[in-house]
Amino acid sequence: MAMPTTPSVPAPRTPRRLRGRTNTELYAWMFMRVSGVLLVVLIFGHLFVNLMVGDGINALDFAFVAGKWASPFWQIWDLMMLWLAMIHGTNGLRTIINDYAERDQLRFWLKVGLYTATTVTIVLGTLVIFTFDPCPPDAAAELLPSFCPAP
Question: Any idea which fold 28-134 has?
Answer without folding.
Answer: 3 helical TM bundles of succinate and fumarate reductases (1.20.1300)
